Amino acid sequence: MTDAKSSLPILDLQRFAAGHPERAAALDELRSVARSVGFFYLEGHGIPQEQIDGVLDLSKRFFTLPEQDKLAIEMRKSPHFRGYNRAGLEYTRGTQDWREQVDFGPERERLDIRPGDAPWKRLVGPNQFPDALPELKPAILAWIEAVTRLGIRLIEVFAEALGQRADVFEPIYRDGPNQLLKIIRYPGRDKTESYQGVGAHKDGGFVTILLQDEVGGLQVDDGKGGWIDAPPKRGTFVINVGELLELASNGYLLANIHRVVTPPAGGDRRSVAFFLGANLASTIPVLDLPPELGAEVRGVTQDPLNPLFHEVGRNVLKSRLRSHPDVAAAHHADLVELLKVPVPA
Ligand SMILES: O=C(O)CCC(=O)C(=O)O
Ligand SMILES: [Fe+2]
C-alpha cells in the first residue's frame, strides 16, 4: 500500500532532541503548524511497530466479538464513562455519530464521594475490560503507558516552541494526567444515510495521538470552508492540538475542528484515539508568552454551544455528559440539571 497524499506536514520527534542540529528549525516548524492547522503527522516517536500493529489487531478482534460479549461491558453500567457503546449512542453537538467504541481511562479505584465534593470526582474509577478477550487488558494498559510518555514528550516540545521551560505544564499533570483512550470502529453506510462517523469537533486535552488503520476518513477544517484529508501513513501518528493548549496559549495555538466521514457500505474503519489531559483537580494556567508571540495571540474561540472552562475536571465532566446522554441520565441526573446539559428524550 502506498500512503495517500495529505497537505499536513510530517514532523520527526528526533529533531527536537537537545543538541540536535535541526532543533531550532523543528521548534519553528512546530510552532507554525500548531498555530495554523493544528494537525501533523509524527514520525520518530519511538513506539515499536509491533506494539502499534498489536493494539490495532486486538481492537479489530474486540469488535468482531458477539454482541453480547461487547454489551457485557456497556458504558451505561459505568458512572465513570468507561466501556462499550454501540453505534448511534454518541452525539456530537446534538447530532448522532455512527461508530462503536470502547472508552478507557486511568485505572483507579472509585472515590468515596461526600456531599459537597466536586462533581468531577465521579469520573475517577475502574475501567471495564471484556472477559471474552483477556489479552485486551494488558495491551490497553501498556498502550496507555506508552502514549502517555509520548504525549508528555510532545507537550514538552510544545512548551519549548512557546518559549517556555520544557516542564512548564508539569504541575498540572504530575499528580496523574487524565487520559482517555478509545478503540473505535466506524461501520460503512450507504451514501443515502448520514455520513457522520463523528461530527465536527475539537478535542479537549493537551494533545491527541491518533492511530488509524488503512481506510482513512479523518478530515481537518482548512479554515476556508473546506476539509483537508488526513489519510493514514504507516508508522506515523496523527497529532493534534487540544483545547488545553489553546487555552494555555490564549489562542496562540489552534485546537482545530475535525471530523470522520463514514466509510462506504460494505467496509469499515478502525482507529485508536488517545487524548492526554491534565490532572482533573488542576486549573489551566495562561502562559506568559514572549512578546513576539504574545503580540499574536487570538484569544480563545468561545463557542456558545460548547463553553470552555479553565478548571479541568469541570471541563471533562461537561464533555462526557454531553457526549453520553444515556450514561448521564442513568448515573448523573442531578448533574445534568446542574450543568444544563440537554438530554434527548
Ligand atoms: O477516529 C478518528 O480518526 C478520529 C476520532 C476523533 O476525532 C475523536 O474521537 O475525537
Ligand atoms: Fe477528535
From TrEMBL:
<dbReference type="InterPro" id="IPR005123">
    <property type="entry name" value="Oxoglu/Fe-dep_dioxygenase_dom"/>
</dbReference>
<dbReference type="GO" id="GO:0046872">
    <property type="term" value="F:metal ion binding"/>
</dbReference>
<feature type="domain" description="Fe2OG dioxygenase">
    <location>
        <begin position="176"/>
        <end position="278"/>
    </location>
</feature>
<keyword id="KW-0479">Metal-binding</keyword>
<dbReference type="Pfam" id="PF14226">
    <property type="entry name" value="DIOX_N"/>
</dbReference>
<comment type="similarity">
    <text>Belongs to the iron/ascorbate-dependent oxidoreductase family.</text>
</comment>
<dbReference type="InterPro" id="IPR050231">
    <property type="entry name" value="Iron_ascorbate_oxido_reductase"/>
</dbReference>
<protein>
    <recommendedName>
        <fullName>2-oxoglutarate-dependent ethylene/succinate-forming enzyme</fullName>
        <ecNumber>1.13.12.19</ecNumber>
        <ecNumber>1.14.20.7</ecNumber>
    </recommendedName>
</protein>
<keyword id="KW-0266">Ethylene biosynthesis</keyword>
<comment type="pathway">
    <text>Alkene biosynthesis; ethylene biosynthesis via 2-oxoglutarate.</text>
</comment>
<keyword id="KW-0560">Oxidoreductase</keyword>
<dbReference type="GO" id="GO:0102276">
    <property type="term" value="F:2-oxoglutarate oxygenase/decarboxylase (ethylene-forming) activity"/>
</dbReference>
<dbReference type="InterPro" id="IPR044861">
    <property type="entry name" value="IPNS-like_FE2OG_OXY"/>
</dbReference>
<dbReference type="GO" id="GO:0009693">
    <property type="term" value="P:ethylene biosynthetic process"/>
</dbReference>
<dbReference type="Pfam" id="PF03171">
    <property type="entry name" value="2OG-FeII_Oxy"/>
</dbReference>
<dbReference type="InterPro" id="IPR027443">
    <property type="entry name" value="IPNS-like_sf"/>
</dbReference>
<keyword id="KW-0408">Iron</keyword>
<dbReference type="InterPro" id="IPR026992">
    <property type="entry name" value="DIOX_N"/>
</dbReference>
